[in-house]
Every structure is written in structure tokens, then in C-alpha cells.
Amino acid sequence: MVKHFTNVYLIAAFATIGGFIQGFDITSMSGIIGTKPYRRYFNDPGAVEQGGITASMAGGSLLGSIFSTFLSDRYGRRDTLFSACLFWIVGSALMSASQDVAMLIVSRVINGIAVGMLTSQGPTYIAEISPVHIRGRLICIQQWMITWGELIMYFIQYGCSFIPTNTAFRAPWGIQMFPAIILLLAVPFMPRSPRWLASKDRWEEAIDVLASLHAKGDRLDPLVVAEVNEIRERITLEAKYSATSWTELFNRRNIVRTHCAIFAHLWSQFSGVNAMIYYIVYIFQMAGLSENSSLTAASIQYALNVVMTVPPLLFADRWSRRWTMMLGSLTMAFWLFTEGSLMAVYGHHVPHLNGNKTLTWVVDNSKASKAIIASSYLFVCCYAMTWGPMGWIYPPEVVPLYIRSKAVSLATAVNWGGNFALTFFTPPGFKNIQWKVYFIFGTICMTALIHVFFLFQETRGRTLEEMDEVFNQSIWAFKVQYVMLINEGKAATIEAEIVEGAQPKL
């Protein structure tokens, strides 16, 4: 029997390689679409065609996130990650060998399936192995790895952009398979989710995993005993429902929780961040930068994304989830409205920009151009500190175990559905309504702020099983009293048993 890793930080680091792969996915086109070898080889794709090429991976991710729930419920979170790596390696090989647009799209769909599986099951797996006091930090590693993936892939593409041959795009697409190979080799040494083991009535294994991860192997540690009892009570209660179908996500017990998980991803996507990432070169060219200058300026934005994800990585478990999301919505809306206004006032229409028919708006004023670029940087900084990590932390925390895999998969599918819509329609948006795109995203951010205030319950500091009590208090998040009835009751019981010399029961 293979001995598994016991350090939760190490396990989370390997599990979030899926986030690193997603970062590669996000920037797999951004540094390439403006290069001459790519445009020449694929016959200079128009706005709709380029939108379809870029969005094909998001479409595959939507399918992969739904498909992953069947694998995850039956074979476990860990084995689903293993399967996703195989999809990614095959897709990357085909992508680097693409002969035409059709082959490129098919390969990106296959890669997208892998990313959908990784992004739906990776955060769920981390949430289910993490101690409550560092759960937010560990899931936040997912977003940090995404930013590293974006930065590294962008610089790979930037370096290859100086190659005059087709290697300029084939080399980056081939290199991206290596993180999946690393994760593939690490998966056998990662423990299975203790909550998944418990749901399969494999209690001895579940207790062993919890003890090794949270108490250095001590099965009688009070924290392990409390956690096992909570999981047991929750599974017993859920067994009474005898419902495992998809409709269970939308019944009276779960619909509010399911909808919060879905909208955490939806608001994160429709903040406009991926339009800023996928098409950052287009945006900076509209701001008046040349092709080479826009590539350099874009690299700064990717670096800022990495750096500004560090604060939530360190302090996510000290920050209120809901107030972080609301503050993020407000500040991102401000910078989006600022950027749109600057483009509207100082820009003008052109038939095309540098031969690119997708770009029909340009800003010639140098001061306005710098302000637009600065606003873009600040927008990404705000996202990196708020919705970036919270969009991944929140969904696994709000849904019960027996529907967690389905709910998180559905939420991730909605995430990728939103991603598909954005990446497909952003190029036509830039072509037809130009600066108004920013106003649309800004309005969506303000809507998200209102929604979070009313319906998103606080999850910080609560066990995954404890969220039932929170949602039972009220559907209105601003009314819920921050009490820990379940934790306090269980802690008192265990403490009394220890004081009286009784053996805590598993």
C-alpha cells in the first residue's frame, strides 16, 4: 500500500496544479493572437472566428465540470484529478500539432474538459481535507496557482513571439502538458477525501486520513473525534433524504445554498476579468500602444495578478468572505466605469487597427492611454484580492456533503458557461460597441454587490457541516447572528468526557 502525504500544504500544492493548468489555459491564446505567424497560419481569424477559437476551451470546461461529478461521486475526488491529467496531455499534444482551425478547436475542447474536471474537483478535494482554521488559505492557493500559470504561460508566449516561424505558437502549446505530468505522478501519493470515504462507509480509512492530516496520526485527538462525529451525524441525516439526483440541488433544503455556490462563480466570471486577461493585448492596442508595447504592458498586469493574490493567501481565514466580495465588487466597478469613460471621451472610431478588423476604437491621447492602462492594472489588483480567491473558496463551503460534488460541478459549469459567453462575445463587443463593454461589466459588478449583501452567508471559521445551522437561521445573510451553536455544543461534550476520564467515541 502506498503511503500518502500527510502535510496538508503539500497536498494542496499538488491539488492546485489544476489551477496552474487553468492559468495556462486562460493565457494559451492571449500572447499568441496578435503574432504574425499565428494570424498568417490560421488565415487571420475575424472577430467571431477568434471568439469561437478562444471560447472552445471554455465550452469543453463546461462539459468537463458536469462530467466530473459522475467520476467524483463514484471513484473519488483524487482519481478524477488523475483522469483530468490524461485529458490535458492528449489535448495539448493535439493542440501543438494543429493543422487548421477545426483541429485547433477540437484540441481546445479536449483541454477544456480537463480544466473543467480539475477546477470543479480540486477545490472540493482541498475543502474536504483541510482543517477549518486554514481552509480558506489552502483553497486560495488555487487562485494563486492560476495567476502563476497565467504569468508563466504569457512569458513563454512572449519569448516565442519573436520566433518568425510556426514554432511561435506550437512550442507554448506543447510545453503546457508538463504540469499535468507532474500532477499525474503525484496523485497516487495524495490521500483520498475523508468525507468521500465516509460517504462510501469506509470509516476506518476516513478516520485514518483525518488523524494523519490533522493530528499526526492520533485517532483519539479531540479535534479528530469532533470532526468524525460531525461527519457521521451529517451523513446519517442526509441518508434519511435518500436523494442523490440532480433535482436534490434545487429542493427547498438546498436551493439557496446551491444558488449561492453558482453565483459565486458567475459574479466572478462576469466581473469582466477574463475579458481583461484573454484579450489584454487587444485592450492595450485600443489604448494606443503598439503591438510590442502592448505585449510588454500586458506582462506587468499578469505579474500584478500574482503579487496581489498573496494577501488573501495569507489572510483569507481572517477576512469576512461576504465583505471581501462586496468590497471587490465596488472597487472593480469603479475602475471599469473609469476605464470605459476614458475610452469614450478620448477615443474615436477607426475602420480597423493595425490590420485587425476586430479593433475599431483607439485612444490617441497619451495621458488618457496611461490612465486606461493604470485603471486596468488596478482592476486586476482588486480582483486578485477579492473575487479571484473567493470565487473558489466559497462554493465548496456552502453546500452539504451529499450534494457537494454535484453542486460544485454545476457551479463550475456555470463558471465555464460564463467564460464561454465572455470569450466568444468580447471580440464582437470590442468591434461593435467598443467602450460600452466596460459599462456592462461595471453594472454587473454593482449587481453582484447587492446580491452578496442580501443572500451570501458568512462561512469563515465554520466547519463544512456547521453551515446547515447557519442557513437554517435565515436566508437573509445580513440577519444571521454569528453564533457557533454546533461547535460550542460538541466542544463542551468532548471536554466533559475528557475531564471525567471517559473515552471520546468515534
TrEMBL record:
Q: Which residues form the signal peptide?
A: none
- Which keywords belong to this entry? Membrane, Sugar transport, Transmembrane, Transmembrane helix, Transport
Matching SUPFAM superfamilies: MFS general substrate transporter (SSF103473)
Location in or out of the cell: Membrane
Q: Which GO terms describe its molecular function?
A: carbohydrate:proton symporter activity
Q: Which is a Gene Ontology cellular component entry for this protein? A: membrane
Q: Which family does it belong to?
A: Belongs to the major facilitator superfamily. Sugar transporter (TC 2.A.1.1) family.
Bilayer topology: Multi-pass membrane protein
Q: Record's Pfam families?
A: Sugar_tr
Record-linked PROSITE patterns: MFS, SUGAR_TRANSPORT_2
Q: From the record, give the transmembrane residue ranges.
A: 7-33, 53-71, 80-99, 171-190, 262-284, 296-315, 327-348, 368-386, 407-425, 437-456
Q: What name does this protein carry?
A: Sugar transporter
Report the source organism: Rhizodiscina lignyota
What region holds the Major facilitator superfamily (MFS) profile domain?
11-460
Lipid metabolism among keywords: no
The record's listing under InterPro entries reads:
MFS_dom, MFS_sugar_transport-like, MFS_Sugar_Transporters, MFS_trans_sf, Sugar/inositol_transpt, Sugar_transporter_CS
